[in-house]
Amino acid sequence: MAIWYPVDTGLFVTASFDQYVKVWDTNLTQVVMDFKMPGKVYSAAMSPIASTHMLIATGSADVQVRLCDIASGAFTHTLSGHRDGIMSLEWSASSEWILMSGGCDGAIRFWDIRRAGCFCVLDQSRSQLGRRPPFPEGTSEKDPMNSLKSSPSSKIYSAQQRTGKSKQSRTLHKSQILGHGHIQQRLHPGLSSSQNRATAHYGAVTGLRATTDGMYLLSSGSDSRLRLWDIDSGYNTLVNFEAMRLQTSKPLQLAVTEDPSLVFIPCMASIKAYNLWSGMTFQTFRGHYEPVNCCYYSAQEQELYTGSNDRQILVWSPSTPAFTEMEDDDKRQRDFVVDEDNWSD
């Protein structure tokens, strides 16, 4: 896989099954730095909002997340907690210190890279139907983590703590605290054994993508499921995405529109666009001949870019002839179904 250096296009980073993460000079098309990993490298990510560090988070067949520093050319530290290889990584869109990882053990873990251990493990059995309520007055939409101060879940927890009725709610509240300096940070040793063993998917977590507002996280798994998580609470929102068939042995790169209203996900040799909130299929893009591994949506150009094992990179836009043909084919099929009953033997 390849990612751009977030600040400018002068550098880009590649990660490969050859166990190397390499930093390239775009103008010279030469490798200027490389990092040797202990196994196949599945994923690499850089924070799009980082201003105080130049870290590349890497996930490989090894069980640890490794952080590589471009500034020093060395590893800074590792993050331990997964029990199998790490296939997907995603930095928070609201904090340069928060990293999310998805492993072959089915777990999605949240890390504050300034501290030891993860502070949250997503659990598919913890759910909350629907979208998050509007922000209370006095909180910032750009920083959803601040809503913890006055969220309904916090008020419920406070009441239960005073009455001493629910020890379990106190445990859940601890895992919800994502920490921003003044908020108390809960470390991995503070997680209960059941929380530490929680899984987000039945199988490997093959893809992660946070929405641009930093409020929700999308995850795909080898169980051919797509799940939408509320980052603030850690709850599964129970959006029922329509049936899909996903690759199970490779990481997948998902894409989300700026709204966010649509999510694009590689489904074998096609790409499906789903409504983020209803889970309904909006459109299916067909053009590749072999499994698609990655997709990227450009909000500026209103275009979708996809890459496949057929060694082709396709560009999809509203003016693409394939779109018109696809829509015409769908219309003809619908018309045929409607007129089918008008014919008799």
Automatic annotation (TrEMBL):
GO biological process: proteasome-mediated ubiquitin-dependent protein catabolic process; protein polyubiquitination; transcription-coupled nucleotide-excision repair
One Pfam family recorded for the sequence: WD40
GO cellular component, one term: nucleotide-excision repair complex
Keywords in alphabetical order: DNA damage, DNA repair, Repeat, WD repeat
UniProt-listed Gene3D superfamilies: YVTN repeat-like/Quinoprotein amine dehydrogenase (2.130.10.10)
WD repeats: 1-34, 79-114, 198-239, 285-317
Low complexity bias spans: 147-158
Region of interest called Disordered, as start-end residue ranges on this chain: 129-172, 324-345
Annotated protein name in UniProt: Uncharacterized protein
